[in-house]
Each structure stands twice: as structure tokens, then as C-alpha cells.
Amino acid sequence: MKFGIDIGHNCPPDIGAKGIKFEDNLNLDVGNKVIAKLKALGHQVVLCKPTKVDTVEESLSKRCTIANTAHVDIFVSIHFNCFNGQANGTEVYAISEVGKKIAKSVLDEITKLGFKNRGIKDGSKLFVLKNTNMPAILIEGCFIDSPKDMKLYNAEETANAIVKGLTNS
């Protein structure tokens, strides 16, 4: 299987949210672990994060172009949520039916770590899901401004859960 892994944000001016922790740091940590684990299982992985952009729109567009040009089988965008310090849990966005099945599998694995299941969400308004040519999901691992979620958060366990959900292994 050929996975396109998008380590969310991490390309100024496209930067992630700030809470108890910084989204960019968590995206990078979990994303790199997911990539290594998928490769160790024999999968091909394409990093879909651009290195230099001038705008957030360009960052989003380049992520899609990388995935589409590489003809990946599944596109996975890794993110963490931030709201008001009170919300918590994990949600995964998808559009297609295949994407929703993948999203459910990943969501089920992450919530086994103790995070609240916030469900599969409609990703039809998300640029990277609308503009990729393959089944695509966007994971919001947990809330970086939630003390409850940050107490549960472990990068290694989160990466393992994502990989297990993606590969059913």
C-alpha cells in the first residue's frame, strides 16, 4: 500500500494551534512515527508536507499536489484540535465512503487509548480532503488545550493506533 502522510501545518506561515502544547510539535512527532512504522511494515510512504510556501492556501494546495502526483492509495492528514480548554476527544474527517471506513478504523483504535469518541465528521469543507484524488482522512488526534487529553496523550501510542487503524494489523 502507498500512503500519503501529511504532517499538518509545520510550514510557515501555515502553523498549527497553541494550547498546553503546540500542534506543530505533536503533528511532527506523531507523523514521523507513523511514517517509520508504516515503512517498517513494508508500505510505501510519501511525505505530503511542503517545505516552503508563501501562504496557507499554497501550503494546502501543495500537499494535495504531492499526493495526487505520487498516486498514493490513501491520504492521511495528521492534526490535533484546540478549542476552549473544555472540549476533549478524537475525531476523524472524511468525505468518501471508503474514506469513512478508514476513518472509523483509525478512530476506533485511537479511542481505545481512552480519548472520547467524537465521531466521523463531514470533511467536505476541508481543502486537503476535497482536492485529493484518493480516499483521504484528516485526524484530529485530541485537544491540545485539554488537560484531560494532554494527560492521556502519548505520541508512540497514538502513532501505533493510527498505523493499526490504517493497516488493520
Explain the overall architecture:
The structure is a single chain. With 169 residues, the chain is of the alpha/beta class. It has a single domain, classed as Zn-dependent exopeptidases (Aminopeptidase, 3-Layer(aba) Sandwich). The protein contains 6 helices and 6 strands, in the order E-H-E-H-E-E-H-E-H-E-H-H. A 6-stranded mixed beta sheet has the order 2-1-3-6-4-5, with helices on both faces. Helix 1 links the parallel strand 1 and strand 2.
Say which CATH homologous superfamily is assigned.
Zn-dependent exopeptidases
Report the sheet with the most strands, covering strand number, pairing sense and barrel closure: 6 strands, mixed
Contiguous uncertain segments of 5+ residues: none
Strands ordered across the widest β-sheet: 2-1-3-6-4-5
Helix content: 40-55%
Strand % is: 15-25%
Q: Give the CATH class.
A: Alpha Beta
How many beta-strand segments? 6
For the residues shown, what is the average pLDDT? Answer: 97
Give the end-to-end Cα distance, rounded to a whole number of Å. Answer: 13 Å
Number of helices: 6
Brief descriptors of the model:
alpha/beta, 6 helices, 22% strand, 169 residues, Aminopeptidase, 6-stranded mixed sheet, 42% helix
